[in-house]
Fold these 3 entries.
Entry 1:
Amino acid sequence: MTEAHLEPTQNYALLGWPVKHSVSPQMQGAAFRALGIAAVYRLIEVVPEDVPEMVAQLRDQQYAGWNVTVPHKAQMAELVDEISPGALAAGTVNTVVNRAGHLSGHSTDGYGLASAIAESFDVRVAGGKFVFVGAGGAARATSVYFAQEGAAELVLVNRTLSKAERLAETIRRTNGACRVVCLGLTDADAIHAAAAGADVVFQATSLGLHVGDPMPVPATVFTPDMCVMDMIYRRTALLEAASARGCRTADGRGMLLHQGVRSFELWTGRTAPVDVMRQALNDVLACRGNPG
Ligand code: NAP
């Protein structure tokens, strides 16, 4: 008589503060189900000072892996046993793989953004020129990845110019051949000129998360046929303004999807069911009144 072999349930999580809004459990849950993997993906809200203790607990409890979101991505880079070159260069980890207690840290946001522009605009990173409005964690992780992947020129536009300049230093260390320009948000003419020759303009500030937020750059920056992607995963006022001026636009759900796809593949070693994950993401966002 043969004994049925049941795989033990694997545990995964998202660590952040706050995390209640996250749609990753639905997206990852759908992927695990589609591939017949018994797994649970939990949301764990943890304050920064408790992150080291939480990581020790997850390691002890043999969690197979976890995602990391604001504000813990830089801290997680210090807590893993091994770090991928991309995550090391940017100093940020959003995906941890636990193999028998050995933690490896990765950053999948840049891969997510690169996949999203390929899908939405048929644009490749290598040799391209990109404008990032914002120089926070999301812009850091993705722009450093773009430099690693051979972007020719990156323009960093930020309210706090010194932060853009610090990021530019990291990018130059990563790829000395990549031209980097830093601009303040008030430098409207220079932003206009930079955006005109760019393959894609990214909105990577937190402005737009709340309805009624002002736009970080004036609508006059946008010209017909320009590609504009907002990392926020809903139609923001900025996307509406760009669209009204004839731009090709996309919100941040493609980035969200593909960073999750890469996390899934790092955890499981299997090809992620991208369309299943996309459908789950769209369904949950539509349920929340955000049809895209
Ligand atoms: P962050 O590290 O807190 O950075 C915030 C950025 O927004 C900084 O550049 C900051 O400029 C700027 N900013 C904030 N308030 C501003 C204001 N009133 N005026 C002008 N600029 C302002 O946040 P983050 O993690 O980089 O996230 C940025 C955005 O990306 C968020 O909207 C987030 O939802 C989105 N995101 C999307 C994905 C995805 O998968 N689609 C992934 C990650 C993040 P200063 O430096 O001057 O403060």
Note: The pocket of NAP is lined by residues 70, 109, 112, 134-139, 158-160, 163, 185, 204-207, 209, 216, 231-233, 252, 255-256, 259 (CB under 6 Å).
Entry 2:
Amino acid sequence: MSPEVVVAEPPVLAQALVDLVSSAAHEAEAAGRRLSLALPGGSTAEMLLPPLARAAIDWTRANFFWGDERAVDPGHPDSNYGLAQRLFLGPIGADRAQVHRIEAEGPDLEAAATGYAARLASVLGQSPALDFVLMGMGPDGHVCSLFPGHAALREDEHLVLAISDSPKPPPRRVTLSMAALEAARVVCIAAFGEAKAEVLREALEERTSALPVALVARRFRRTVFLLDPPAAALLHRA
Ligand code: 6PG
């Protein structure tokens, strides 16, 4: 399916996100599931998690996951979990039982990846399909910790991968694989600022682009881009 692209100022993008997550919550409820939501790091978390926390959404039955995590303690300023805890999970009063963080701080990253795959399966079943993945995108076209040209992009067996050579610091990370992301019902990518404009043009307008964000845009069931005007500046269709 072609990706949906919303271009607007951040407050309007935040409302679009609230509407999308509300719909996902209603669909999950109607299907007898608990909403499963994967949370982002970076500027997407900073811009969009505070307004999402203020939305009139009943979070009491939701399960919260992450798309990726850096190999740092949960209290470290670089922790994606820590950021979400401050901006979203704390403000909504999430219960510990709803929060499924990637425990990437130990010495064994492979064990962390295997442990997170087991957690996904225990909460969502043997073929885990997240209802909604919210994520950012790097200026090089990476999503989660899946970087352009990296062997991890070709991994189609495991749902969670250990990365020890991320070009974006810190180098050690744990990430959902493309296969895990592709199983999600909705993937929502937010991007802000002109540094993301060229890569978005390539991802959305060049059919042969092999950038991770382009693969998400072309192949997944439903992908929604939330872009501010500088990020969308080079799109011909926007
Ligand atoms: C991370 C992220 C990563 C991030 C992009 C965009 O933990 O580093 O998950 O994929 O979303 O690098 O980050 P910015 O939005 O801060 O540019």
Note: The mean pLDDT is 97.
Entry 3:
Amino acid sequence: MAPTKPVDGLLRQIIMPVDVGSDTVKLSLGASSVEVALKGATVISYVHDGRERLFVSSKSDIRTSDSTAIRGGVPLCWPVFGPPPAGNELYSKLKQHGFARTNVWEVADQQDSKDGVKVVFKLSPTEAIKSVFKLSFALIYTVDLRPYSLRLTLHVANPSNAVAALPFQTALHTYFRLPQGVTPPDVSVDGLENLAYNDKVSGEQKVTERRKEVVIDGPNGEIDRVYFRAPNELVMRFKGQTETVKVTKSGFADAVVWNPGPKKGSTIADMEEGGYDRYVCLEGCQVEPFVYLDPGKDWTGTYEVSFGQ
Ligand code: BG6
């Protein structure tokens, strides 16, 4: 397949900056690469500094022909996060985390410069989507591979000819692969102190976080918390290691920390054997309140992953 743009060196002729396949799109920039499944525009691989940074269960089916969500990478939750709100006709036909993560997105644009490689994905209402969600919308998702980071931008628009406001929740449900020898109880997240959170394990609501470093150490290893109004910079640390993962976000007001632990994790049908020990999810979310977009209005959220020492 020919490169997408004229190339200036042998390396760029061998490694195409953007390679659009029938199931995935691959982006390459020097020693970094990203792979995005067209199903859900789910980022399924991010290699930085020669190491895979995302976890994807080997039981996932990444093909466009399959309609189940991918267990891992960065599933995009929209227009709801978690179970759809009960008793509301608008959401009654939606599944957990909505339909954006299971529908096939189009490649709308691609750009390649010395500053990075970008692919823009688009999702608009198809007949299948209209049968479960009746509102108009346009989703644009930009995957931007930069020399030292991966920047993900979700843009949601309610078309100006829409007849109603567009209410939604959203999340970039990132499964961070843990470094070799690290398991979830060795992981902590900085930046959540003094925030209110809902604990989906105990059912408690609006508890105040007292810890400076939140360790992934819930009952039976399970942690599932929505932190409200999280700061725009969060840092994940690994016990005994100097390397850190930095998440920088905007627009997504909330953050979720999730790992099911061994007891629940081993009951998840598409989880590979022991997979729950290989990741922690640190998600940029907009959970509460729903965003309400009037016709002609839009919303943008960014979520950027980089690494420190
Ligand atoms: C998390 C939720 O973000 O996603 C959890 O907070 C949920 O409650 C998890 O279990 C995984 O969801 P799913 O639908 O991909 O199994």
Note: The pocket of 6-O-phosphono-beta-D-glucopyranose is lined by residues 69, 82, 96-97, 173, 200, 224, 256, 258, 283 (CB under 6 Å).
